[in-house]
């Protein structure tokens, strides 16, 4: 069995309300995709080492479409 992020693999949806303006925040993807130009193309076993999260978590960036507020959210990986 393998641990995978349910958001990265479109297995689940996660919604959250912006604490500033109460609009819906959108998932902008895993934070490791924003580290440099090549990070979205690196193997997951490499990028998991640099996001600062535990091995069973994937850190996603959520951004408010209303006020542009952003927040990092740890998503628990699931076994498939």
Task: Give a description of the structure.
This protein has 80 residues and is mainly beta. The chain has one domain. 5% of the residues lie in helices and 35% in strands. It has 1 helix and 6 strands, in the order E-E-E-H-E-E-E. The strands form 2 sheets. A 4-stranded antiparallel sheet has the order 2-3-4-5, with no helix packed on it. A hairpin with a 6-residue loop joins strand 2 (16-17) and strand 3.
Quick rundown:
With 80 residues, the chain is mainly beta. It has one helix at 44-47; strands at residues 3-4, 16-17, 24-30, 57-64, 70-76, 78-79.
Write the layout of secondary structure elements.
Blueprint: E1 3-4, E2 16-17, E3 24-30, H1 44-47, E4 57-64, E5 70-76, E6 78-79
Antiparallel strand pairs: 1-6, 2-3, 3-4, 4-5
Uncertain runs are: none
Shape: globular
Q: What is the strand content? A: 35-45%
Largest sheet: 4 strands, antiparallel
Order of helix and strand elements from N to C terminus: EEEHEEE
Mean pLDDT comes to 89
Structural class: mainly beta
Q: Determine the oligomeric state from the structure.
A: single chain
The total domain count is: 1
Name the helicity range.
Answer: under 10%
User: What is the terminal separation in angstroms?
Assistant: 6 Å
């Amino acid at each position: 069995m393998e641990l995978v992020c349910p958001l990265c693999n479109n297995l689940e949806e996660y919604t959250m309300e912006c604490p500033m303006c109460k609009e819906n925040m959108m998932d902008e993807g895993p934070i490791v995709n924003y580290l440099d130009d090549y990070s979205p193309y690196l193997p997951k076993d490499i990028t998991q080492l640099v996001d600062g999260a535990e091995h069973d978590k994937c850190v996603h960036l959520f951004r408010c479409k209303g006020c542009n507020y952003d927040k990092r959210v740890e998503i628990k990986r699931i076994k498939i």
